[in-house]
Structures are given as C-alpha cells and as structure tokens.
Amino acid sequence: MSRREAKSAKPDPAQHEMTLTEHLAELRMRIIRSGLAIMVGGVVVLALYDHVLSWMLQPYQDLCARKPAEFCGRSVDPETGKVVLFNLDPIEGLTTRLKVSFYGGLILALPVVLWQVWRFIVPALHKTERRYAVGFVLAALILFLFGCVIAFFTLGPALEFMISWAGQDVEPTFQVQAYIRLIGLMCLAFGVGFIIPVLLVFLELIRVITPRQLLHFWRYALVLIFFVAAVITPSGDPISLIALAAPMTVLYFLAILVGWIFQRARQRRERNARTET
Hints:
The protein is mainly α. Helix content is 75%, strand content 0%.
C-alpha cells in the first residue's frame, strides 16, 4: 500500500453516521448561533437607524433632485427639498425600525450564517470536498453583497420607471414601510440570484451535474434565468430585470468555467493516483 493510500485509508471523524437526534441537536445549535449573530447585528443597526434610513433614501433623493418638483409630488418637502416618507399607522414607525434592524442584522451576520449552514452540511461531504469550505462561503458572501449593491444602484432608475408609468394624475406618496420592504426584497432577490452560480459549482464539485451538461443546456438556462429574474424582481420593471438577468448570465458561464477547472484538476489527481499504484 502506498503512502497516499495509507493516508486516505484513515477514518475521517466527520464521516461517522449521525442519528436523527444528533442531526436535530446539530441543527438547533447552528440556528441558535445564527440567530445570536443576527441579533447582535440588529442591535448595531438599531443604534444607527437614522443614518441607515437616510442612506436608504439616497437613491430616491437623487432621483427627485434631478427631476421637476411635481415628479415626486408630496414626497419632497418644499422647504428643505428633502424626501419624506409617511406613516399611515400609529405602530408603523416601530415596526419599520424593527424590520430595518432585522434586515441590516441579517446582512451583517451573513458570514456567520453562511458558515453555520456550511458546517451543518459538511459531515455529508468527503474530505476533498470540505477543503473548499472557506472559498464557497467567501464566494457566496461576496456575490450576495454584490447583488445588494447592484439592487441599490438599480433602485433609482426602477423608481423613475414606476413613477413615470403611474400616470399624470397620480401623485407619489410613499409609505416608509412599503419603501423599506421594496429595498429589502430587491436586495434579497439580487443576492439570491447571484448566489445561484455558487450552488452550480457546488453541484459540479460533488458530481451531481457536469460542466458539459450545463454548457449543453445553455439556451434553456438563459430562458430560465430571465424567467426567474422576472418572477423574483419585486419592482417588476424591465430595468431591474435586465440588471439581474445579465450578471446572472455571465455568472452562469463563469460557473461552467470554474467547474471545468475543478473537473480537470480532479481527473489529473486520479491519473496520478493510478500511476502511483
């Protein structure tokens, strides 16, 4: 037996089979850790709520600043020129503050949440597959945040399109809760859409699909990408749809390339192992 075979023959402590009770205990621990991280992030955002809300209003503020006064209607204070949102419910201010804190806390805690998710599925993977844990978590985090950035910069053109198509007799007066919900859903839609290629690379790595299969069905994939982008985009405007579908298309082919590189490296290792034996 070669040295490599002797090394690979050692039992992997992460590969032992867990009972249902152990799985549930593991899941509970991961959920608790993720929840605590979100709570800590939410407290930080809650303390900085006024600054966060002002930052979230900036795309709408910039849009109203470059448009005629009647374009944004009552959403602009005539004295200060600043965008204002409205509460139509006595408890709406409190619930909005809590929602912003939760969304912001989730984004701040995203590295912890992704790591906990990965650690939960690690026991089901082989040792060679677990080596890419940090890479997958970092890639998912970066792509999710990149999707949120794209969604934020797309918000201004999307609002302009929706206000323009509302009609001349419609005066925009936005609720603070509706505005925050739109930003949160757009960030979630873009972030999840940008993470899908990471999932494709993961499926290629565990040999569920191959780069050749993904490349063969690229026409169907493009149709599916634009369909998914149209469905998950909360604003429903063509600007957001294209801003989401175009990067997803590029990332789809990038996932094929990364999967092909992993496949070639795995085949090379397998040939070397056969040669040594």
